[in-house]
Specification:
31 helices, alpha+beta, 10-stranded mixed β-sheet
Length: 967
């Protein structure tokens, strides 16, 4: 699944907020969806969109000891710290405890846990028949479930929520059928069927009838609406069942390791279409005029992967991809937006079939665009569901970053067909590996699809998003015990997707791509159609590479945080990195956490490959490695794939700044991002960062400039009003020369990523930089695009930046034009560009109108992110916060649960007023949310980091800028 999680990049706070909004609205599987900093312009932010993500950030394992029984997990440790290797607040315990946890922890969810179902009965086949009534917003259904009783019982317990169940019976075979009594437990989301005699071990059939409502919460079996070309509102019934919402569609064993085959039948009006995981095998006409649509049995799979879709939908003609029919399903009138997704899907199917050396595990592949969708996409076997923005696109009118996002999301979900659907985690703590691996594979696939996009370079920004969260006290281990459904929902964040994917990339680069690929293939073959724990993958990779993978990875997976590797005279030193100075010491009686850190170094006094050195900083080592002398600068984290920060002495940083042209793009990006992170944490003076930024010169990598733009954006939030002109002048001095070189329009043979850089610079210069020439040109282009006769479209790569700059003028007439374009948008991407622009106007009254739109008109999948954008508006943010508190109950009730924490991530921008920040913190701690409270705590901690930066730098900002930047 791709969450719509807004995710961050290295610290430039302001920039990452824009990215978070962009990615969240644009959609991604995950939270790719769960923010530290990215470019203030949304266009630049889109470069970083996750396929959740991110969507943007704010963003969802198990260990050795698995037995042959799927539920056979033994927990030998008892204290919270011992079980996880971490304290409840995420801080690591001693290395000895971590080692014990690694050896003994199988699953945090033992079979007798109160939220787990008994293991006495196992489902093997579900025969489901559902009949949605789209007009009434209800559905009825029946379930016939083949079960295997493994211990004598007189009751069958499974999951059910928000369902009414009647007429249950158990067929013992031989003509013996017992009526079962029914007891629903809404609190624990269970139903108990009791029979009058004990069922001995054997095979039986459970039958029941049930009914429910098509809810408006974008979870379970729910309804989505759209207005057709005749202006009529139409309804779709569709499902989103991950993590634990299958129980809202039908009674089931709603746990990932209770795999079964599904035979689905849908009763529908003949004017509608029906889709599920497998192909249609038969259509019958009922006496009441409805159609009975029967689908082929699926392979064994988890309940969360079931797809049930009914509505006035159309499908493209199938494209044959080596024997697999692939279609895009969409609402009428959007067929012209499907060709690009079909192209990406064909590439991804062939790429993954070859990479895994395993045929595609389903019979067909439908990619279904749903108008209302809480996540970015969902990997239902053979029937993947998406937000429209993540699937439907017109290449002729789309920005390159928007095309990249669709490619990312489609590739991510198709990777899941093997890693997640064919082989599935045992319990929900293992979701990190599903999502991290799909995140890693999406980038690998898209990099092969469009090499000129340099997808591994831009993925460095996603790594920064993860490190930005991971440097907080409130971070968590990538893998940690998960119990209740609410805890499972908290796994879908930037640490699961981006940090997990980054750690896998680091591992692949360390053991070598060939060995990594062999290990992954062996893992999938060994566990096909089964469930696994994390150590199963480590074992396969160890066998393939001969490297101690488990020992290496445990230090990254089982403890929160990441190291700071410092280059000291003649040696490297590791220590935990934290933005909070008070958190840098170890707990009394404990050693500070350490990692097994694979390090590549490159000496710039030599140009050949021999200059690269590889070493491993081990968690157990006491002595730091001694380095040979070097005549030139030494690059730590050569190649840029290490998941850690690097700190240089000021003299070494100055030497590197003079050799930026000899660094790879990702190495330069990491150097700038790491330096800014050290400034934000108070370890490095602000002037060091701006001195480094001055050396970027002709750099063509958007991610390096995005960190600079983000840093300027945070300064813009905390600077005193009297010093704002000097900040604007500094922005023009830093970014203006490169913007003038690039100009406004594409040049022949310019790189694929240059348009992203151009948009970033335009947005920053037209807002923070108050550049009159930029503003005038943006105004001209906007006016030409809105002429009644002969309009001249804005280049899609810079359109979002132009809208942001125009919005800065705060003219009501511009607002009305953008609102009209939002309501009449030709593509999903255009709709989001103009919707987001409505939150950019620095005008309280216009901000109030946009807030009302979010509550009354905008789809609930997008509205929370529109409010997030309002919170990040320097002028409108404080008033928006007040309105959130006044409408708290309505907001919590109206918006999907998974969006609350992401919306509230915008409070990080309310850092210009320490008193307001305290009020925000108090309110959110007094009003905890049901899902994602840890993410809220991370946002509050980020707010505190930003406030601390302002208090530390506000008084000296003018002097630093005048001394370092302004001529």
């Amino acid at each position: 699944m791709l969450a719509t999680q807004p995710y961050l990049t290295a610290a430039p706070e302001e920039a990452s907020l824009s990215h978070a909004i962009s990615a969240a609205l644009g959609g991604s599987c995950r939270a790719r969806c769960p923010l530290v900093c990215m470019p203030p312009s949304r266009a630049a932010a889109e470069e970083l969109a996750v396929k959740d993500g991110f969507d943007a950030e704010g963003t969802p394992v198990l260990m050795p000891g698995r037995t042959n029984d799927p539920g056979g997990y033994v927990m030998e440790l008892h204290s919270p710290a011992d079980r996880t290797g971490h304290q409840r607040d995420g801080r690591a315990v001693s290395p000895e405890s971590r080692a014990v946890a690694s050896r003994t922890m199988s699953s945090s969810s033992t079979p007798d846990a109160p939220y787990r179902l008994p293991r006495t009965v196992e489902p093997t086949v579900y025969r489901l028949c559902l009949a949605p009534d789209l007009d009434a917003g209800t559905f009825t259904g029946s379930a016939e479930i083949d079960i295997r009783v493994v211990a004598p019982v007189d009751r069958i317990i499974c999951n059910a929520a928000e369902l009414s169940i009647e007429r249950a019976e158990v067929d013992l075979g031989g003509g013996i059928v017992h009526t079962a009594s029914i007891a629903l437990d809404e609190k624990d989301e269970r139903v108990t069927f009791t029979v009058p005699q004990v069922l001995e071990p054997g095979r039986y059939v459970l039958r029941c009838r049930f009914a429910g409502s098509l809810n408006d919460k974008l979870r379970g079996f729910y309804r989505s609406t759209f207005v057709d070309q005749d202006g009529i509102t139409r309804t779709i019934a569709t499902t989103q069942l991950e993590a634990t919402d299958a129980r809202r569609a039908f009674p089931c064993w709603d746990e990932p390791d209770r795999k079964a085959s599904f035979e689905v039948t849908l009763l529908i009006d003949p004017s509608l279409a029906a889709f599920s995981n497998s192909p249609i095998v038969k259509v019958d006409h009922e006496e009441d005029g409805r159609l009975r649509v029967r689908f082929a049995p699926t392979m064994p799979m988890s309940t969360y992967l079931v797809a049930l879709i009914v509505g006035p939908l159309e499908a493209t003609e199938p494209v044959d991809v080596d024997g697999v029919p692939v279609r895009v399903v969409h609402v009428p009138g959007k067929g012209h937006l499907t060709s690009y997704a079909l192209e990406v899907a064909a590439h991804a199917l062939r790429f993954f079939s070859s990479y895994f050396d395993i045929p595609y595990p389903a019979e067909k592949l439908d990619l279904v665009a749903i108008p209302d969708f809480a996540f970015g996409a969902m990997e239902n076997l053979g029937c993947v569901t998406f937000r429209e923005t993540a699937l439907l696109i017109d290449p002729a009118s789309a920005a390159r970053t928007e095309l990249e996002r669709v490619a990312d999301v489609v590739s991510h979900e198709i990777a899941h067909m093997w890693f997640g659907d064919l082989v599935t985690m045992q319990w929900w703590e293992g979701i990190w590996l599903n999502e991290a691996f799909a995140t890693f594979m999406e980038v690998l696939c898209v990099d092969a699809f469009r090499p000129a996009w340099e997808r591994w370079v831009s993925f460095g920004l996603e790594r920064e998003a993860a490190l930005a969260v991971d440097g907080l006290r409130s971070t968590r281990p990538i893998e940690y015990p998960v119990g209740s459904p609410e805890e499972a929902e908290g796994m879908f964040d930037v640490l699961t997707y981006q940090k997990g994917g980054s750690v896998l990339r680091m591992l692949e680069q360390y053991i070598g791509p060939d060995a990594f690929r062999r290990g992954v293939r062996a893992y999938l073959v060994a566990h096909a159609h089964g469930n696994t724990v994390t150590s199963d993958l480590w074992d396969a990779l160890e066998d393939a590479s001969g490297e101690p993978v488990r020992a290496l990875m445990d230090s990254w997976i089982l403890q929160g945080g990441h190291p700071l590797v410092s280059l000291r005279p003649g040696r490297l030193v590791q220590e935990p990195f934290s933005y909070d100075a008070s958190a840098r010491g170890s707990e009394p009686g404990q050693e500070p956490p350490r990692w097994n850190v694979p390090v590549l170094m490159r000496r710039l006094d030599q140009r050949d490959a021999v200059s690269t050195e590889r070493l491993l900083l081990t968690a157990e080592s006491i002595e730091d490695p001694v380095l040979a002398p070097s005549d030139g600068p030494l690059v730590v984290n050569a190649g840029g794939w290490g998941v850690y920060r690097v700190a240089y002495e000021t003299s070494d940083l100055e030497r590197l700044a003079g050799h930026l042209d000899r660094l790879d793009a990702l190495e330069r990006s990491n150097l700038v991002a790491d330096t800014w992170a050290l400034v934000l944490s108070g370890r490095r003076p602000l002037e060091d960062f701006f001195s480094l930024a001055r050396h970027l010169g002709h750099d063509s990598e958007p991610s390096t400039f995005s960190t600079v733009a983000g840093a300027l954006g945070l300064c813009d939030r905390v600077v005193g009003e009297g010093d704002r002109p000097i900040l604007a002048a500094a922005t023009r001095s830093l970014l203006g020369p490169r913007a003038r070189e690039l100009g406004w329009d594409p040049s022949e043979n310019e790189g694929e990523r240059i348009p992203t850089l151009r948009a970033l610079l335009i947005g920053a210069l037209g807002t923070i930089g108050e550049d009159e020439a930029i503003r005038a040109d943006a105004r001209r282009r906007f006016d030409e695009a809105n002429r009644k006769e002969g309009p001249v479209p804005i280049n899609p790569d810079i359109e979002a930046a132009v809208l942001e700059v125009v919005a800065a003028s705060a003219l009501t007439a511009d607002y009305e034009k953008m609102l009209a374009r939002y309501r009449a948008a030709a593509t999903p991407q255009e709709e989001l560009r103009y919707l987001t622009a409505l939150a950019k106007f620095p005008d309280v009254e216009l901000g109030a109108r946009t807030f009302d739109l979010a509550l009354e008109e905008v789809r609930t999948q997008n509205a929370p992110y529109l409010i997030l954008a309002l919170l990040t508006n320097r002028v409108v943010g404080p008033v928006t916060w007040q309105r959130i508190t006044e409408n708290w109950s309505a907001i919590i009730e109206r918006f999907p649960d998974n969006s609350h924490a992401r919306m509230l991530d915008g409070v990080r921008a309310l850092c210009g007023d320490a008193a307001l920040a305290e009020k925000v913190t108090s309110f959110l701690r007094e009003h905890p949310i049901r899902a994602g409270q840890r993410t809220v705590e991370q946002s509050l901690e980020r707010l505190a980091v930003n406030v601390a930066f302002g208090e530390r730098e506000r008084g000296r900002l003018r002097e630093v800028l005048e001394r370092v930047i302004v001529p």
